[in-house]
Design goal:
Helix content: 40-55%
CATH class of the largest domain: Alpha Beta
Number of helices: 10
CATH topology of the largest domain: Rossmann fold
Strand content: 15-25%
Bound molecules: NADP nicotinamide-adenine-dinucleotide phosphate, guanosine-5'-diphosphate-alpha-D-mannose
Largest sheet: 7 strands, parallel
Number of strands: 13
Strand order of the largest sheet: 3-2-1-4-5-6-11
Radius of gyration: 19 Å
CATH superfamily of the largest domain: NAD(P)-binding Rossmann-like Domain
Distance between the termini: 43 Å
């Protein structure tokens, strides 16, 4: 039975990936941070019939290199999926130092712990389309990076650390350069979930307006469940390499609002208000990925359309709020 270790297992992607790997017969271990209240809601899907969680959780933090080393030695994984990060772009402008440490140096710490442990695990780095920043679309593996946020800068560092450990030490270390992917488990302060949650709250009568920033930003939005399958395929490839995962289709935040509100018969223009608080000091205007390489070498294609994604998220939020 192969053994996988996931950092960021309590996050959106970590929960879908753990589910996928358990279904594939892996022994799955996840690293969680200690917090004053348990933050495991996304892992509820993984509870067995008797309520037991079928994956092993270990306390750890990206700020604790020795702890990471001890964990890798204790678990002895065949594959490490490094997903943990301060992952919010807007927030990264408010806490740039912390974001650089966790999102940038955190990757180096996992790589160095892996190297020092002598463990031969394959390593996956959760790289991001935010690294392309202002590079014109479509973006692929050859597109030069031009990050536009502390988060994007930290991810560029982590990307190159992964390439560097591959080239320096012969490690099987790969980057998945993932474009935006969403789901009903998405954090509530990312724009898709903020919009779908607002639609449900407005229907429930508990919210009257939705305050947003830049409605013109274009994003290539896919479904997180499809993307974790891509992560797994990246580590099953015969050699370490870097891959873009994207849908190849872009939509604006405005279109996102139109689809979400019209799904329940509402006109978004009556509810959406522009709020300067949600504009970023520098914006990424247009992300549109070209996933041809992943399609050709990994046989990976996304299965969920933009409309399916948004309406599923609205329906899930309605069900949760009873709206
Ligand atoms: P997410 O929902 O924000 O999850 C982030 C995870 O990292 C959480 O489990 C969080 O733990 C953990 N974490 C944060 N700081 C940590 C620390 N100091 N030590 C240990 N764990 C820590 O993010 P996601 O959407 O699943 O994304 C997964 C990864 O892919 C991230 O690296 C993200 O930057 C990257 N990515 C995401 C997308 C996307 O569209 N979703 C696209 C490209 C790349 P808590 O639960 O305790 O907060
Ligand atoms: N969050 C948020 N909140 N975004 C808003 C809002 C708002 O109220 N109003 C407009 N937007 C715009 C943002 O300015 C951005 O252009 C776009 O909506 C998407 O914002 P997010 O959903 O926060 O995602 P992101 O694209 O900045 O970052 C996500 O995708 C990256 C991959 O490209 C995150 O998941 C990153 O971790 C990931 O790397």
């Amino acid at each position: 039975m192969p053994i996988a270790l996931i950092t960021g297992v309590s996050g959106q992607d970590g929960s879908y990936l753990a589910q996928l790997l358990l279904a594939k017969g892996y022994e799955v271990h996840g690293i969680v941070r200690r917090s004053s209240v348990l933050n495991r809601s996304r892992l509820e899907q993984l509870h067995g019939a008797n309520g037991a969680v079928s994956l092993a959780l270990h306390y750890g933090d990206l700020d604790d290199p020795l702890g990471l080393l001890r964990l890798i030695e204790a678990v002895g994984p065949d594959e490490i999926y490094h997903l943990a990060a301060q992952s919010h772009v807007g927030v990264s402008f408010e806490i740039p130092d912390y974001t650089s440490s966790v999102t940038g140096l955190g990757t180096l710490r996992v790589l160095e712990a892996l190297r020092l442990s002598g463990c031969q695990a394959r390593f996956y780095q959760a790289s991001s389309s935010e690294m392309f920043g202002s590079a014109p679309p479509p973006q692929n593996e050859q597109t030069p990076f031009h990050p536009r946020s502390p988060y994007g800068v930290a991810k560029v560092f982590a990307y190159w650390a992964t390439v560097n450990y591959r080239e320096s030490y012969g490690m099987f270390a790969s980057n998945g350069i993932l474009f935006n992917h969403e789901s009903p488990r998405r954090g509530e302060n990312f724009v898709t979930r903020k919009v779908t949650r607002a639609v449900a709250s407005i229907l429930a009568g508990t919210q009257r307006e939705l305050h947003l920033g830049n409605l013109d930003a274009m994003r290539d939005w896919g479904f997180a469940g499809d993307y974790v399958e891509g992560m797994w395929r990246i580590l099953q490839h015969d050699q370490p390499d870097d891959f873009v995962l994207a849908t190849g289709e872009a939509h604006s935040v405005r279109e996102l609002c139109e689809v979400a509100f019209s799904h329940v018969g509402l006109d978004h223009e009556k509810y959406v208000a522009i709020d300067p608080r949600y504009f970023r000091p520098a914006e990424v205007d247009f992300l549109l990925g070209d996933p041809a390489k992943a399609n050709r070498l990994l046989g990976w294609t996304p299965s969920t359309t933009f409309r399916q994604l948004v309406t599923t998220m609205v329906d899930a939020d309605r069900a949760e709020l009873g709206a």
